[in-house]
Design brief:
Layout (H helix, E strand, L loop, with lengths): L2 E6 L5 E7 L2 E9 L5 E7 L2 E8 L22 H6 L29
Amino acid sequence: MEGKAKYILPTETIYVGEMKDGMFHGEGTLYFPSGSQYDAIWENGLAIKGTYTFSDGLHYDEKNWHYCDGYDRRFYTEILNGLKPAGMAQLTNMDPPRKIPKGYYDCGDG
């Protein structure tokens, strides 16, 4: 594969970008099934420089990462929207949280 491409991996992750000799090469983005994405500059299949964005819009910053770092344990949606009153605390980053049917539980994997 050469030039611009859209490649769907077996994990349902999708790569959209430039390719050379069947490898990611140039500018390209990996779109993950969770809704997050990784925008990068690729060289012979390896990411040289890139940025990761979580599905909720939070950008990962390797040097200045202050989210959930021991000093501030708020969820990202709480940082954006503020804390809720006592007794209405969030248990996950999802607001509102997903509905869990009666007789089931959320195993919290992921």
